[in-house]
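Researcher: Re-running this chain for the archive, since the previous output was lost when a drive failed. Same request as before.
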Amino acid sequence: VSQEILNLISTEDVRVAKKTPGCQHLAQDEIYDWMRESVKSGRHVVRLKIGDPFVFGRGGEEVLWCRQEIGLEPEVIPGVSAAFSAPLLGGIPVTHRGVSNQVVMCTGYGKDNSSPDLIRYHAEQTVVFLMAVGRIEQLMTKLKEDAGYPSNTAVGIVERAGCVGSRTLVGTMENIAELASFHKIVAPSTIVVGEVVRVLIGDDEDPDTFNQGLLIEDGVGAEMESLDEEQMRQFLEPFLQKLAP
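Model: Regenerated structure tokens:
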């Protein structure tokens, strides 16, 4: 959750769990402890997430935990998954007639930090990976060797989508891991694999755009820099009202 959003919270009791790779289960247990403690003391609790809580966000698990452990049915407010919003903000349509007619969403980290099985290559398919940038080199190797992807398949990474300092990096399956390391791409980032990455980015007359790689800095997110806190609050007011007790 970006600092711009956290600044809008009026309560002083804001607790942030650090879900670093390999330690997610410890952070999740910490969240459960906070929720149990706060509910027992009669307080309202907002479990704030980015994206859609039911898309690789443990939302379903947390609903079940609330029912079983504290006997409450939480209200779930839908969000917009980065699987669709991040590519859009990075200038990548996840579907495009004649290029891609199907979209697959995958996570980079399965249960117990395992690597999920990958779907086989299909020319008119887009695959969006969430929470996978830390494994991008391993991921590209598996897509080529295990799922049959051509090494020149286009790949895009959208970093900090919708935030100030957002960046979009494009390349091919062959060079994207090296490019990401060189440009220090970090989480939160969304990876898009498929020829849709080429539709709006680059020059058809310059095929080297993807072979050499291209970094686009301060895209749509840069527009947010001009919004002051009051403007941001007005924009988010309808959503904040839903969260009010």
